[in-house]
Structures are given as structure tokens and as C-alpha cells.
Automatic annotation (TrEMBL):
Residues 33-257 form the Solute-binding protein family 3/N-terminal domain. It is found in: Periplasm. SUPFAM superfamilies: Periplasmic binding protein-like II. InterPro entries: Solute-binding_3/MltF_N. This is Amino acid ABC transporter substrate-binding protein. It comes from Rhizobium nepotum 39/7. Pfam families: SBP_bac_3. Keywords: Signal. The keyword Calcium does not apply. Residues 1-22 form the signal peptide.
Length: 268
């Protein structure tokens, strides 16, 4: 019995003097820099201005987060398919990249409560004859690979049993293909659809209606085991809403009615 007590005491002492592992939150503050993965071909969430500077809702959100932490923001341009790999390889500290909070992604990374919410819209080539979501049946359609809307649209095409789905690397590729008639229609967030039509860069396309998909709630993400940092990010999102900054950024980059980030019966 005495021997057991001695061994237990030694183990307890050993654990007591073992240095605690620093949290990512501490690492970011110590480094003085917050590296954010941001998609810069996804206006109005992320884009580049005429001087090639990053702009958009997600860019401002990263800058706000860095300011709250007392560090400098570093925008790391990250295409949609590379968002999670960029985190896993250590190139970034956090994803501020309009990332859908799927259960599959949550197996790999730690996701926060929603910081933005998207509705889905159909954009069509004016010569395609597509005037609604139902008109897409049997047509050639496409979307940005790996996005919420691409996964949903590909599934729909398979269920229809007719037509073709084509994945693209970037949103710009999708709208260029749409303008050139390589695809007849696409589903994207309403913010992206309106922004791309308004640019005038893609002739002969129009937003023709809504797509009957769920609202796409998107989250910030970091390493799955960084609980301290995830807790901080959740509180930061809460503060952005409470202070009115979320509404301010939405008005600046999107306009119109600010979507609620709550899910009835789940979060308030």
C-alpha cells in the first residue's frame, strides 16, 4: 500500500512539472501575426481591387479578428479546394474562407458557430432557356468543386438521371464557362451570383431564381484540438454580431436584409 502511494505521488509530481502545451491562441499572439486562409476569387467575400489588394467581407473579418487579438493580419490567398490542406500543412492559423460547416469537415478541423449565411441562386446563360431551377434538368451545369452548392448540384443531377455536372477549380472559371456557353447554368450563393453579373465581365448571363437548397451556414475553422482558440473564435463571432459589426460589413459588401446566423431550436 505504501509503495503504491509513493508511486502515485511521484507520478502526480511528474505531471505537475510537465510544461503545459501552448494553445494556438497563445502562439498567434506571441508571433504577432494572424495568417488567414481567404478565397480571393469569391466576391464579395474575397477578391482583389484594381491595385491587386485583397478586399471583401472575409478580408475585413480577418482584419477585425487580428485587431481583436492585437496582431497583424496576413491574408493567404487560398483556392476553395486548398482551404483545409493549407491549415493542415501549417501555412495558415485560421480559415476565414466561407467554409460550410459540414460534419465531414468537422472530422478533420475544428469549426466555429456560423459567422455568415448564404442563400442559393441559379444563374443561367441567356441562350440556354433556363429560367428556373427546374429548367436545369437535362442541361449541362457546373459549380466550384468542393463547395456546398457543387456537392448539392451534383447529387441533384444524379437523381435526375439526365444532364451533366462539371466541376471547376474557381468561381471565375464557372462564370467564364457559363458566359461562353460551355455550361447552361450554375448554382452559387446569391451574393456571388449578383456580384459576378454586376461586374459586366461575363456577358450574356442572368440570375434567374433561387435554388431549393438549405441555407449554407459557414464557419471559421482551425486545428481540431485547439479548444482555447476555437472558444475565442466563437466569442469573437458573438461580439461581431452584438456590436453591430456583422451588420455593418454585410451592408458594405452585400447590402439588403442581414441574414440571421441562428438556427431555430438550436442556437439563439
Amino acid at each position: 500500500m505504501k509503495k503504491s502511494i509513493i508511486v502515485a505521488g511521484l507520478l502526480a509530481a511528474a505531471f505537475a512539472i510537465t510544461p503545459a502545451k501552448a494553445d494556438k491562441l497563445d502562439d498567434v499572439i506571441s508571433s504577432g501575426t494572424l495568417r488567414c486562409a481567404v478565397v480571393l476569387d469569391f466576391p464579395p467575400m474575397g477578391a482583389r481591387d484594381d491595385a491587386n489588394n485583397p478586399i471583401g467581407f472575409d478580408v475585413d473579418y480577418c482584419n477585425d479578428l487580428a485587431k481583436a487579438l492585437g496582431v497583424t493580419a496576413e491574408i493567404v490567398e487560398t483556392p476553395f479546394p486548398e482551404r483545409i490542406p493549407a491549415l493542415m500543412s501549417g501555412r495558415v492559423d485560421v480559415g476565414v474562407a466561407s467554409t460550410s460547416d459540414t460534419l465531414e469537415r468537422a472530422k478533420t478541423v475544428g469549426m466555429t458557430v456560423p459567422y455568415f449565411a448564404f442563400e442559393m441562386a441559379v444563374t443561367a446563360n441567356d441562350k440556354s432557356g433556363v429560367k428556373s431551377f427546374e429548367d436545369m434538368k437535362g442541361k449541362t451545369v457546373g459549380a466550384t468543386a468542393g463547395t456546398f452548392e457543387a456537392i448539392a448540384l451534383e447529387k441533384t443531377v444524379k437523381e435526375w438521371g439526365v444532364g451533366e455536372f462539371r466541376p471547376y477549380q474557381t468561381q471565375a472559371d464557372v462564370f467564364l464557362a457559363l458566359s461562353q456557353g460551355q455550361i447552361d447554368a450554375t448554382v452559387s450563393t446569391s451574393t456571388v451570383a449578383q456580384a459576378n453579373v454586376k461586374t459586366g465581365k461575363f456577358a450574356g448571363i442572368s440570375v434567374v431564381g433561387k435554388a431549393p437548397y438549405d441555407i449554407d451556414y459557414v464557419a471559421l475553422f482551425t486545428n481540431r484540438d485547439e479548444y482555447g482558440f476555437i472558444n475565442y473564435l466563437n466569442l469573437f463571432i458573438n461580439q461581431q454580431v452584438r456590436t453591430g459589426r456583422y451588420a455593418e460589413l454585410y451592408e458594405k459588401w452585400v447590402g439588403g436584409e442581414v441574414p440571421s446566423l441562428t438556427v431555430n431550436g438550436v442556437y439563439r
